[in-house]
Design a protein that fits this description.
- 20% of the residues lie in helices and 28% in strands.
- The chain is built from 5 helices and 14 strands.
- Strands 1-5-13-12-2 form a 5-stranded mixed β-sheet. It has a 5-stranded mixed β-sheet with strand order 8-14-11-9-10, covered by helices on one side. Strands 3-4 form a two-stranded antiparallel sheet.
- The radius of gyration is 25 Å and the shape is flat.
Length: 302
């Protein structure tokens, strides 16, 4: 269906002062602090977890050395998805001095819609982090779970007990991150990089990270989170997180949250010979996902 003169009748009348709704601001690129970004040249990408060796056992004098096996564990698969949006305009509407309006729709309207789509898709991984119906990892678990299976260290957790963002719960999460081990039970020296929150938590996050003293305490205790720089990249508000009290910590564990960009945003236009309509299209291809769950710790609000 094409945009015709009847659907934009007001713009054909003299005396119209302004057309509004196209010039709104945008909330863009909030996905970038959440994901490692890589280019892709395939229909899909796969990343496999390779387990190392466990702690070496004691060898008694004269006894044989112990052997261990390294092996592949689960595989994370990323299927690149195509996102596209188009609109058409009749040649009569184009003729009647409305070229500027449609030029704005093409340049700004399509770009704004495509940018919003990317942010929604990026946040969906987090919005479904605790849901059994969400996207499962290669190990068959949800993004944030207390029972991620390992080869040699039982179940591991990147889930903190449901609680709102507060000093005590944030300290617990930061402590748990420092205790993270690999699949064979060896500490990996993980630490938090950044805190990610919905817009509802901007005030408490700023207080917790930037107040010199311990929050809501009458004692003269320092705020260790602040003084030790426990979250070096600070906090980021993500306007596309739908749970008003969930929050997440991105860690320095590599190959955690991943965003593969297959084809960057492009636009095109063409005329249709039979109808005279002009068609505009925007297209992009990418995927969001996760390889190593240790790259994120999540807390579902109370």
């Amino acid at each position: 269906m094409a945009i015709n003169r009847s659907s934009i009748a007001k713009e054909l009348l003299p005396g119209l002062n302004a057309v509004f709704g196209i010039e709104y601001g945008e909330v863009n690129d909030e996905h970038k602090p959440l994901y490692e970004v890589e280019n892709s040249d395939r229909a899909f990408e796969e990343e496999v977890l390779f387990t190392g060796f466990g702690t070496a056992p004691d060898k008694t004098e004269g006894a044989a050395v112990s052997y261990d096996d390294a092996q592949e564990s689960y595989t994370a698969r990323y299927d690149n998805e195509t996102v596209a949006l188009a609109f058409a305009v009749t040649e009569e509407a184009m003729e009647d001095n409305l070229y500027d309006t449609f030029a704005k729709l093409r340049a700004k309207g399509l770009a704004r819609a495509m940018a919003n789509t990317k942010q929604v898709k990026a946040a969906a991984t987090f919005n479904n982090a605790f849901a059994s119906s969400g996207v499962n990892l290669g190990d068959g678990k949800t993004l944030c779970a207390s029972d991620h299976p390992t080869v040699g260290d039982g179940d591991q957790s990147n889930l903190i007990a449901a609680s709102d963002l507060a000093q005590a719960t944030l300290e617990t999460a930061l402590t748990n991150i420092q205790k993270v081990k690999d699949d064979r039970g060896i500490l990996i020296g993980a630490s938090a990089l950044s805190l990610h929150i919905p817009v509802d938590s901007w005030n408490i996050a700023d207080v917790l990270l930037n107040t010199p003293g311990k929050v809501s305490s009458a004692d003269n205790d320092i705020n260790a989170i602040n003084s030790m720089g426990m979250i070096p990249q600070g906090y980021r508000v993500n306007h596309f997180l739908t749970d008003s009290d969930s929050w997440y910590l991105i860690t320095d564990v590599p190959n955690g949250m991943k965003h593969f960009q297959r084809t960057p945003l492009s636009t095109a236009m063409e005329g249709d010979f039979d109808t005279g309509n002009v068609r505009y299209k925007a297209r992009e291809r990418y995927v969001f996902g996760v390889s190593d769950y240790r790259g994120i710790f999540g807390v579902e609000g109370a």
